[in-house]
Amino acid sequence: MNRNFLKEAIADAKAVKESAIANAKVALEEAFSPQVHAMFASKIEEMEKEDMDEAYDKVDEVKDDADMKEEKEYMTKKE
């Protein structure tokens, strides 16, 4: 009888432990979800800004190359 009681107590303790871990996970998710969401949103915004900056830089390079080519053609015609 004591042996069965001990087995039941161990089984109950394992169930309580699993329940406690599950509850802790839920609590952590609820506590940190807004922060994680904000961090991801901030990082995405930062990456989009970097992409736009790179795109503008490329446009400026193309314009500069076109201006230089145009100027070179003008100077060649002038001579």
Class per helix and strand makeup:
mainly alpha
Radius of gyration: 33 Å
What is the share of helical residues? over 70%
Spans of at least 5 consecutive residues with low confidence: none
Helix and strand element order: H
Q: How much β-strand is present in the residues?
A: under 5%
| Number of strand elements | 0
On the 0 to 100 scale, the average pLDDT is 89
Task: List its traits.
single chain; 79 residues; 1 helix; rod-shaped
Could you please describe the fold and organization of this structure?
The protein contains 1 helix and no strands. The protein has one helix at 2-78.
Brief description of this entry?
97% of the residues lie in helices and 0% in strands. The protein has one helix and no strands. The termini are far apart.
Layout: helices, strands, pairs:
Layout: H1 2-78
